[in-house]
Design goal:
The chain is mainly alpha-helical. It is built from 13 helices and five strands. It has a three-stranded antiparallel beta sheet. A two-stranded antiparallel ribbon has the order 4-5. The chain is globular. The protein starts with about 25 loop residues before the first helix and ends with a helix.
């Protein structure tokens, strides 16, 4: 069973429903659900947000306290459609639907519900597009702004993600013993990747140089985490705050997974069709996940359409 506590010792299920009126056992049951699931902190936060979203919709739509024993299939369908009507992305809507469906399934398994009202509600269909990444000009702008500020740590963080394609969790869990760097080669070992799978990935020269420069100035702490924040090891939140800072400076959105997507696109651009290698680097168990990067982005489709002449 995983520890459902996150940064600061808080449990993701604490105050999950905020001030939303729910039945007396609902918060307790949801806490038990999270505690019984082997999910990462990020996944738990996403589920909490999805359930809070559903609870708020249910109370507003039905003018009654949320009790999952009174949730109907029509409720789930209308909830899905309302999210889409609000302009939320198809992926966001589907994730919320899956979160509610899985929770209702668990309620059935523990005997709190007789049937899953979300079981037959279909997810929205969406066109398969490649995940967005930064283009070459944006990557150059990012590293120029970092250099102008002599931000050695930011240079190491951004370089490491862009050149290894790691997840933010891989980065913050990285220890000094996980790095093997030399002038000619480099390797990083991610010991607690998604699904608790360990993998080793190459660290290209540009990332090795950025890391070496940072390690020379790394503040001393009791732990052996590579990246250090103001109050100890750099956290997931700290990395996202760094991304937010440079989003404002650069004038375009930057977040850790966007940098991971950027690496994937560049890898396939330089190594056409080598999905197996990319999957191994990214830690994908299924090649179908990696195949997303073979598809065209929305902008690429638009550019291709603009080039048509009759």
């Amino acid at each position: 069973m995983s520890d459902s506590r996150t940064e600061g010792g808080k449990n993701p299920s604490d105050n999950v429903f905020d001030n939303i009126p729910v039945g007396k056992d609902e918060a307790r049951l949801f806490g038990e659900y999270l505690g019984s699931s082997d999910l990462s902190a990020n996944s738990q936060r996403a589920i909490v947000n999805d359930l809070r979203k559903f609870a708020r919709w249910f109370v507003n739509a039905n003018r009654e306290t949320l009790t999952f024993a009174r949730v109907t299939t029509r409720d789930i369908t209308d909830f899905r459609d309302s999210l889409r009507d609000q302009g939320q992305a198809v992926a966001t809507v589907n994730r919320a639907l899956v979160s509610v469906r899985r929770y209702c399934r668990w309620l059935c398994e523990v005997g709190h519900l007789q049937m899953n009202p979300a079981k037959g509600v279909k997810e929205l269909r969406m066109q398969e597009l490649a995940p967005k990444g930064l283009d070459r000009a944006q990557v150059r702008r990012l590293f120029r702004e970092v250099e102008l500020r002599n931000d050695v740590r930011a240079n190491a963080v951004f370089s490491f993600i862009i050149y290894t394609g790691c997840r933010v969790g891989d980065l913050v869990d990285l220890t000094l013993d996980d790095l093997l760097l030399s002038e000619r080669s480099g390797t990083a070992v991610f010991r607690s990747g998604k699904g608790n799978k360990q993998r080793s990935v190459p660290v290209p020269l540009a990332a090795r140089k950025a890391l070496s420069a940072y390690l020379e100035t790394r503040p001393p702490i009791e732990g052996d985490e590579v990246f250090v924040g103001e109050r100890g090891p750099l956290s997931d939140k700290g990395v996202r705050c760094l991304c937010d800072k440079y989003s404002v400076i650069c004038g375009f959105k930057i977040h850790p997974h966007l940098l991971r997507h950027t690496m994937a696109h560049k890898f396939l651009e330089d190594n056409p069709g080598d999905l197996v290698s990319l999957a191994q680097i990214l830690g994908h168990e299924n090649l179908n996940t990696t195949k997303r990067y073979v598809a065209r982005t929305e902008q690429e489709l638009a550019d291709a359409a603009e080039r048509m002449q009759f």
